Amino acid sequence: MGEFKVHRVRFFDYMPSAIRAMAFNSRTERLALSRADGALEVFNFADSYFQEKVIPGQDGRAVEALCWVRGRLFSAGLNGEITEYDLENLRPKYTMEAYGGPVWTICSNSQGTHLAIGCEDGTVKIFEVLEETIRFQRNLDRQKGRIISLSWHPSGALIAAGMMDMIKVFNAESGHATHRLLVERGVGASKSREVVVWSVAFLSDHTIISGDSAGKVQVWDGVTGTLVRTHLVTKWDVLALSDESSLLAGTSEGTVVQFQFISSTVDQHDKEWVRTRTFKNHTHDVRALAHTDTAVVSGGMDTQLVVRPLLEKVEKNTQESALRKIAFPHRSLVSCGKKAGMLLFQFHGHLELWRLGESDGHGKPGDSLPVKRKPEKLIQLKRKGDDHICCSALSPCGGWLAYSTISSVRLYRLQYNGSNISITKVAKLPKVLRSAHQLCFSSDSSKLFASTTHSSVIIIALSQSECKYLHTLRPKSGTRQPVHLMSASEDGKWLATANSDCEIHVYSLHKLKLHCTVPVYSSCPTAMAIHPTTSNLVMVHADQQIFEYSLVQKEYTEWSRKLQKQGLHHLWLARDTPITHLTFNPRNPAHIIMHDTYMFCIIDQNLICKTFQVRSLFGVKLQTMAYHMEHLLCVSLLEDHSLVVVERPLLDIASQLPAPVRQKKFAT
Amino acid sequence: MAALYEGYTLCGLVQAQNQSDSGIQGIESERDSDHVVVTDSTRSVTLYKVSDQKPLGSWTVKQGQTLTCSAVYNSHTKEYVAVSDNKVIRVWKEEDIILDKAFKATVSSDVWRVHSVPGGEPVVLFQRGAVRLLDSLLSAPQQPVEEVLAQEEAIRWSTTVIAEAAQFVIFQTEQKGDHFLYLQRPNLNAVQRYRLEREEPGLSPLSFSASYRDKHINLLYLYPNGHVYQSVVSVRGPGMEEEAQALPLPRNLLFALPVGEGLLGAASALALDEAHVAVVGVPHPSAGAGKDFLCIWNTNFQTLQAGKEMSGKIYGQLWSYSSKLFIPHGKSLSVIPYECPKSSLASALGKLRQARTEGEMRKIHTNNNTEIKRTAPVEEVQREVEGLLSRSDIQELQPSVGQLASSLVSRSVADPAFYTPGTLAQLVHTQCLCHSVCPDLLLLALERKDYFLCQLCLQLFPDVPEAVTCACLKTFIRCSEKLSIVVVDAQGAVLPTVFFQHGLEVLQTAYSDTFLLPHLKDLSSQQVILFLQYLQFLYLRYSQDTFTQTHGLRSPTLTQIMDWVCLLLDAHFTVLVMTPEAKGLLLNLHRFVKSQVRLFSELGKIEGSLEELQKIKVKKEVGQYSIEVIELF
C-alpha cells in the first residue's frame, strides 16, 4: 500500500475523570457509571461491554451514588439533590432537593417501590417511586452523625445504615432504629479517629456485612446485633462492597478482595464468609464495584473500568474469560479538518483547535522527518454555562466549528489566513436547534447536521451571510433512542445515522428523505462510513463484525456476504476494544483503514475473501506494533494523503493522577 | 596408494535395546570440514568439533518424543533442521538451548528424511515419495502432500545431490521384492523412475551411495552376496510421464567382494572418489573370519588398498566427510582419516616411489627407525624424536606420533629400566595423542610415579576413562597420605601439598557420573574424608575471588568442585555417616550448603526483577509531535 507520511500527535492532553460510583442492572445487563466530573456512562454488558450512552456532566454536580430502579436510573450527590436521568435524551430528567444536606448514598428496595437516601444531617429519607417522578414519603429516626451507606433487607422491612463508628438497623415501617452495631476503630494512632462505615450490605439471612475506613470487613448477625467475624483486609480504607453469595471489597490500595459464603471444610455444613481471592487491577483507590453474574467490575481513581471475569463462572480461554480494561470512551473526541490540516480536541470544559505541522522532507520508511513548521494551537475555546460539552465538530475546510451541550448548540465561523485567526460566533441559529447528540458537517462544509430527539437529524445550510434551517430528517421506525454515530458521504448524497437501538438509517440528502434502513443487527454499530466511490456503507459493530451495505442496491454487498459466510479470524474477534473510526484510502478503493485503542489496521477487501493467510489476519494488516504507537484516540487521513495518528499513552494519564495511598515498592 | 590413518573416538555409543542398532541415526556435515552433527536413534542431536573430539552443543526433544530423521544443517541460514515423531519439523539455531522452545511446524504427512547439502536448499522427502523445499513447506505446513509411491511401495534409502546447479533428490524404494530408483528435482517437480535389475531372488541392496561426476549421477550399491554394482544416470534423463512404465536401470558389476560363507549381514559400501570405495562389514580377504574390517578398494584395479580392523560389532553404517570416515563399531563412533591419491596401476600395486609426498617419506623414515625405538638408549630415542618433531608441521604427523608413543610405552612396560619421561611429555604436548590412541601411557606414568606426565595427560587428553581418572585420584591421595608436607586450611585441617598440586587436574577431567560412581566407591573412608576436606577447602578458597589461578595452575570451576563433592557423598554417604571422624566435616558441609541455599533463594527472588530490567528496551524518546514516514504493506 506504500509509504505514508504520518503526523504523530501526542499533544492532546485528554484526561479521563475518576470513577465515583457504579450500579449494575442485571435485568437489562447495563452498567451505569458516574465520574468525578459528574458525567454518566451506560455500558451494555450484553453487547461486548460497549459504551452505549454518555450523559455529559455539569459543574457542581458530583454523583456520589447511583441506583437503578427497573430501567430507571437515579443518582444522588453531595450537592444534596436526587436526579433521575432521561436515558433517551441523555440529560437529567429532573432534579429534586432532598433537604438533608449532602447526600452520601441512595438505594432502592428490591421491590423497586421506594428509594432510601442517607444524608449528612443524620436522616434516612424514604422516597416513593412514582410513574414519572419520585415523592418524599418520610424520614426515619434522625441520628447523630451522617449516614454514609445504606442497604435494604430484601424483604423491604429493614434498612441497615452505615455511619460514623456504628451501624444502625431501622425498621422501615416504623422508622425506629432496632439495633446499634458498634464498629471498632483502628488501632494505634487511628484510635482517636472516627471510623467511617463506607458500605453495608444486608443479606436475606439477616447477615449484615460492613466495610470501613479501618480496613475491616465485618460480618454481623442482624437479628441479634452481634459481631460474627472480622476480616482485616487492608491497613487503609475498605471503600466499597457489593453483595450476593459472593461479596466484594475494594480497598484504597487498588485491590479487590472477594469473600464467598461457603463451608470452610468439605464435610462441614455450616457455611461462613471466607476470604477467597484478591484481585489487583488498579493502581489507586477502588471507589466503585459491581458484581455481575460472571464478573467483578471495578473502577476508581485510576479512571479505568475493569471487568474481571470469575473463572469458575465462565468458560476458560474464551473471549469472555479475558480481563478487560476500558480506558477510553468508545467514541471519538477528535475531529479532523481534512482539507485544512486541523484537529479539534474535545475536553469536557473546552475545545482546542490545532493546526498540524509541516515538513517538506522526504525519507524512507522508519525515518522521522525534520519538522519545518511546528504544530500550533490556534484556539482554546471555553464553553459557556455549567453544562459540559457533549459533542463537537470541525468542518473539513476548517472554516466552521460547532459544539453542543445539553442546553445549547453553538456554531462559530473561523477565518484563518496562515498567521491570524479570527473566530466569530454565529449569532442567530435556527430555534429548532436547541441541543444535539451528534454534530457533523457535510464534506463541502455547506451543511451542518445535528442529531436530536428520537434519532431525528436537523439540517442547517451554512453560508457566509446566514445559516438557515433546511429540513428535519426522521426515521420511520419510531425509535426514541439517541443517535451516537453520524456519517455523511463524500459526494454529499447520503447521510447515515446509527442509534442505540442498533438501527442504521440512511437518508438521501438530495431528496431530503429516508432512503433505506439497514437490516438491524443485534450488536451496536461502533463505527461506520460511506465509501466515496462505490457508495457502500461499511459498518463495524461492537462484536467486531464487519458489514458492507450497498446503498444503491439496498442490500448487503457480495463481499459482505462472503465475509459473513467465511467468518472473521478468531484473533480479530478476540480483540476487546471496539473499532471507533474507519476511513477509506483514496489511493486504493479496496482499502479500509480502521482503528481501535490499541491498533490501526488496513483491511484489504480484495484479500479478505481469499484463503486465510497465516501471517496476517485474513488480509488485515496490523500496523501499530511496528511503530510503537499506543493508545490511539484517532487515526484519520488528510486530503494530502498523509495520516494523522492521535495517541494518548496511558502512562501519560497515569502520571497525572494523584499519588496512590501506598506507593508500589520495588519488587513487591 | 590409499591409506587409512590412525583413528580416534568421537563419542561413545548409547546402545539401544536391540543390539543390531548402533544407536546412531545419522551424521551430517556442519559448517566446515571439522564439524559434524550426530543424531542418535532416539532423542538427541549433538554437534561435535571433530578434531577436538569434543561436543559443542547438544539438543534433546522431550521424553516421549522421538527424532525420526537425522538432523541436518542449513548452511544458508545456519540453522539445524530435524523431524520428530514423523510429522513435526523443528528448526533451531546453535544458540537455542532448549529445543522445545525453538520453531516447530507440524506437516500433514509423515516425513521420511530432510536432506541438506552445502550449496543447496534443504529438501523434505515424505514417506509417500513427495518432495518439497523446506522453505515452501514451512510457509504453509499443512499443505496437502501428494502420494507419489504406489501402495506397498516404501522408501529404503535416499540422498540429495547437486548436479549442474540443480538439486536432485534420489531415493530407492521397494515394492513386493522389486526395487525402484527415483530421481526428482524439487524445483521442477520432474521425476525419473527406474527399475533396478533383480539380483538373486530375495536379495535387496544393503547400501547405496550416490555421487555426481561428469554430468552423470553415479550410483554404487552393494548386495548381500558381495556384488557391488554401478549405475550411471544422466541428469538430463527423460521426465517420467504420469503412470509411465519405469525404465530399467542399466548396471555393471564393479566387483564381487569375497564374502566367505553365507551372505553379508550389516555392510556398507561408500564411493570415496571415482576409483576408491570404502567398504565396511565385509571380511578381509586375508584375515580370518570373525574379524570386522574397514577396507578401501580400488575399483579400477580391483585391489585392496588399505584395511583396518574394527574392534567390536560392526553395524554396517559408514559416513564420509572431508577425508574422514565415520564408523560406529562396538561401543564407540570412530573417526578415521583417509587419503586416496590419484591412482595409477603402479601406485595401486605399491610400486610407485617417486610420487610419494614428503609426509609419506617421513613415515617411511620413522618406520625405518622402528629398530632404534626398540633398542636404542634413552638419549638416542630422545634426540630422534626431537628431530622428528622439529621437522615439520604437527598435523601431518598425527599417525606417526601415535605409533611412536605406543611403541615407546610398550617398550617401557616391557623393560622396567627404560623410561623416557621427557620424550613422552613432548609427544603429549603435540596434542596429537589421546588416551584411546595410547591407552597404556597414563597408566605407565602412574606406575612410574611420573605425576607431572599424569597431570599433563589428564589436562590434554579429552577421553580419559573414568576408571583411569579414579586410579589417578587414588594414587594422588595415597601418596599424599605418606608425605608430610602440608598446607593448613582455614578450618585448621591439614592438607598435603602434593595432592593440592595434582588433584586439581583430576577435578577438571571430563567424566560421566554413572561411570565414575562405581570407581569412587573403591576409595577407603579415610581417603574420602581427606578428599572431601580438600574439596571443601578448595570451595571456600575459590569462592573468595582472591584465590583463583594459584601458582599458574589451571583451576577447576566452583561447579566442578561442587559436582565432585556431590558425587563423593553419593558414593559414600552411609559410610561417612557412620564414621565419627567425618561428623564434623559433614556438619560443616551441611551448614555451608544451607547458607548457600538461603543465598540462592534470596537471589532467586530478585531474579525476576532483574530480568525485567533487561527487558526494558531503550525507548525512542517520543516528543509531543513528529512527522514520520511509515510503510504500510
Written description of the protein model:
- The complex is a heterodimer of chains A (668) and B (633).
- Chain A is built from 3 helices and 56 strands.
- Chain A has 668 residues and is mainly beta.
- Chain A has a 4-stranded antiparallel sheet with strand order 2-3-4-5, with no helix packed on it. Chain A has a 4-stranded antiparallel sheet with strand order 6-7-8-9, with no helix packed on it. In chain A, strands 10-11-12-13 form a 4-stranded antiparallel sheet, with no helix packed on it.
- The two termini of chain A are 47 Å apart.
- With 633 residues, chain B is an alpha+beta fold.
- Among the domains of chain B are: 370-464; 476-615, no CATH class.
- In chain B, strands 1, 2, 27, 28 and 29 form a 5-stranded antiparallel sheet that branches. A 5-stranded mixed sheet of chain B has the order 14-15-16-17-21, with no helix packed on it. A 4-stranded antiparallel sheet of chain B has the order 3-4-5-6, with no helix packed on it.
- In chain B, a hairpin with a 5-residue loop joins β3 and β4.
- In chain B, α10 (466-482) runs antiparallel to α11 (497-508), α10 (466-482) packs parallel to α12 (513-520) and α13 (525-543) packs antiparallel against α14.
- The longest helix of chain B is centred in the C-terminal third of the chain and has 34 residues, at 582-615.
- Residues 350-368, 489-493 and 547-551 of chain B have low confidence and may be disordered.
- Chain A binds chain B through residues 1-11, 357-359, 362-369, 371, 374-375, 602, 614, 621, 623, 626-628, 643, 666-667, and chain B through 139-140, 605-606, 608-609, 619-620, 622-633.
- Chain A: This is UTP4 small subunit processome component.
- Chain A: One of its GO terms (cellular component) is small-subunit processome.
- Chain A: It comes from Myripristis murdjan.
- Chain A: InterPro entries: UTP4, WD40/YVTN_repeat-like_dom_sf, WD40_repeat_dom_sf, WD40_rpt.
